[in-house]
Amino acid sequence: RQLPALRRRCYIAGKRLSGTGLAAEGRVLRAVLYVYHSRLLRHRPYLALQQVEQCLKRLWKMNLVGCIETLAGLIPKKNTSQAHAECLVPSQPMLETVALKVLGGCKLILRLLDCCCKGFLLSVKHLCSEEFILLNTVALGLLSRLWFVIQYRCALQSLMSLYGMLSTSLHLVSETQQMPYIKGFTFPSDISNFLGVNVSSEVKKQKARMLTTKKPTSWLKKLFPTMPEAVSEVGKKRNFATCTSAVKNCSIPCPVDIGETVL
Question: What pLDDT is recorded for position 218?
């Protein structure tokens, strides 16, 4: 019963981590950091973007997706387990390695979400001060999209569910044959205690802070001044009349050819 469920969890976690959205946002982030490196090296929102990029880089370098896919390939399919009374299962060293990487991946994603939230708030603060408007506007869109992509795809939640299945499987395998690979570390039975925070409440706090922060509207009003209501109504009527007359005139054939001959 445990093996098909573990295989399914591996597939879900690998799929949600290897999505195109997260990789695309990472490429955009690296391009932005490259363009503004020489000009804004000491700018605080730029440093916040660098921290986000470091978390993404470490997440890719640990090859978490490849490790999960390798584990899923070692788990026999359902038909094979039904055909034989005994079946091969992943070894304890393999399960310990994947479980350790999943724990590290959860810590990194939690840190990544925190860096995205702090960078977003910093960019809003500097945008309200009308500093480096272009960079901070790009950073706002980039960080909010990256935070949303991670949350929308439930990458952290899928890893936490995978660790629960790994912990159960690791306990069963170690009871059958003791072959400890990682020594000096006790795998936690509850991943929430290991992370040190309640993930759902922490995400809700970050979302509330990002939504309730003061928005930079002063410089937008300077660029796009608001028109009085009476003037806007006159403009709407004038535009409507112009469009109506243009439609009417389109049906009348023009006898004069205004084009020039091409030799």
Answer: 55
